Amino acid sequence: MHYGSEGYVNVRSSAKVDNENWTTMDFSHNLLTQAESNPVGTILERLKGEDGYYWYRIKLTKPVGGKTEGYVREDAVVVQY
Questions:
Q1: Which pTM value belongs to this model?
Q2: Could you tell me which of 29, 60, 31, 28 has the C-alpha nearest to residue 44?
Q3: What 3-state DSSP class applies to 33?
Q4: Phi, psi of 71, deg, nearest 5
Q5: Other beta carbons less than 10 A from residue 50's beta carbon
C-alpha cells in the first residue's frame, strides 16, 4: 500500500477522523503519524467506518512510537497487489 498524490498519508489509531477538537480544526487526536515513506504498510483488514468511508487496518512498514498497526482511509492510499 502506498500513499496517494499528497506525498503522505495520515495513519490513525482508530478507523475514524477524531473530531474532538473540530472547533479549532484540529483533527490530530487519534493521529499516530503522517507516513511519508512508501510502502506505508500491508493490509490486514478492510472495514467500513462509522463515517461511511472504507478504512484499512495496516501493519506499518516502519513502527511509530512502539505501534506496529494503524488505520488509513481508503481514498488516501493506492493499493498495489
A1: 0.81
A2: 60
A3: strand
A4: -125, 140
A5: 9
Pairing of β 2-3 and β 41-48: unpaired
Rounded-to-integer distance, Cα 17 and Cα 22, Å: 10
In terms of pLDDT, which residue wins out, 3 or 22? Answer: 3
Pairing of strands 31-35, 67-73: unpaired
Cα–Cα distances in Å, from 40 out to 21, 25, 26, 45?
27, 25, 23, 15
Cα dihedral 49/14/55/27 (nearest 10): 90
Choose among 81, 70, 51: nearest CA to 9.
Answer: 70
Q: State residue 65's pLDDT score.
A: 83
Phi, psi angles (nearest 5°) of residue 48: -95, 125
